[in-house]
């Protein structure tokens, strides 16, 4: 090799290292509060560290490497380096997640910690996360999101799909603190590049809105309350209008494949009780993993088409599809509780069963969690039976009914008789308190 050429190549390499250090320093040179990993960590990476990381990335990409790839890897490595030197990011994540509303995890939900542990991410997996930071990779126009979740101590970065770039900005919806759900993800494993796992861009992401937040409520009122399904169906110029709809998810079901293409439909009901089908095709069916019956769906600019029947023929019935410009927001159903009022004891006498009227017995309430359909949720309880199904030596069962009578079974007050009535029959139950009734649990015999 010509010594002069080698010297020139060395000069270009050193110039790039200096350029990369300047870019990283400027990225972390703000006030610290909005920068990833802000805290006592140094803002300028050491020269030797930068050289080592550039060489490592060059070796990882044997088929060739660009300046953007090198800057991306350097930025990720330096971000992780700073995270290890400060605990502020973890404190910030914990405080931010404490303000989030608790919801039931979706069936395919995984945690960020499990992604790092297994170094694997299935496209069918669901990630329920909160945006910790939004930033641009130095020297590029590529947006990244730093995501965290309620169940993990670590975070992970996501290359943002360009269909969401318009939702970033000073008053954008996609910003720090926003909850998102995403699926159809692929992992750039830790064996490549910077040595830190990242999620590659996915177009199957929904942003969660909270109707109790003023900003989100104003967005819903301003953008999604103008049109209804009925008005769209009657409008002859519907193909030239950018519609936005707000409706409740009534049903999620699979359709027969169109040839070899998988299909799913989500039945939506708007405030006027008009219904329409939101049809997903091919890989889009993954989006249905993010939805739950009872939640509210805000659809921005859906594609309007004619429904295709199982015989592959179009009908006059209109449906909505997930087009290239469509954006989806979700107002998830909250994990509600049903208040069950226990009324004052009523006089009741059946055969040898004791009855009593404790005048000092005050009405009370018991909170029972509800499922996504609004019914009482028994998923956290043992197997539920009805009174008519009870027989000797049954264990691990759960009864749900109305307490119709309560009285003491002993002078000490350590046990009580309860009459419980459900839709089938009435049963007498003896409650035995272990220790003081307000301090300890009980066991019951029927």
Short description:
The protein is built from 7 helices and 22 strands.
Notes on the protein architecture:
By secondary structure, this protein is of the alpha+beta class. Among the domains are: 3-85, no CATH class; 214-331, OB fold (Dihydrolipoamide Acetyltransferase, E2P); 337-445, no CATH class. It is 21% helix and 29% strand. The strands form 4 sheets. It has a 14-stranded mixed β-sheet with strand order 5-6-3-2-1-4-7-14-11-8-9-10-13-12, covered by helices on one side. It has a 4-stranded antiparallel β-sheet with strand order 19-20-21-22, with no helix packed on it. Helix 2 (47-60) packs across helix 3. The longest helix has 25 residues, at 3-27. It is globular, with a radius of gyration of 30 Å.
Structure summary, number of beta strands: 22
Question: What is the structural class?
Answer: alpha+beta
Strand order of the largest sheet: 5-6-3-2-1-4-7-14-11-8-9-10-13-12
CATH class of the domain at 214-331: Mainly Beta
How much helix is in the residues? 10-25%
Characterize the overall form: globular
Helix count, per DSSP? 7
- Poorly predicted runs: 1-7, 30-41, 336-365, 437-444
Q: Which fold name is given in CATH as the topology of the domain at 214-331?
A: OB fold (Dihydrolipoamide Acetyltransferase, E2P)
Draw up the topology in text.
Layout: H1 3-27, H2 47-60, H3 67-85, H4 88-98, H5 112-118, E1 127-136, E2 143-148, E3 156-159, E4 179-182, E5 187-188, E6 198-199, E7 205-208, H6 214-223, H7 229-234, E8 244-258, E9 261-269, E10 275-281, E11 296-300, E12 303-308, E13 314-321, E14 327-331, E15 337-342, E16 364-369, E17 383-384, E18 397-398, E19 402-408, E20 415-421, E21 426-433, E22 442-445
Helix pairs in contact: 1-2, 1-3, 2-3
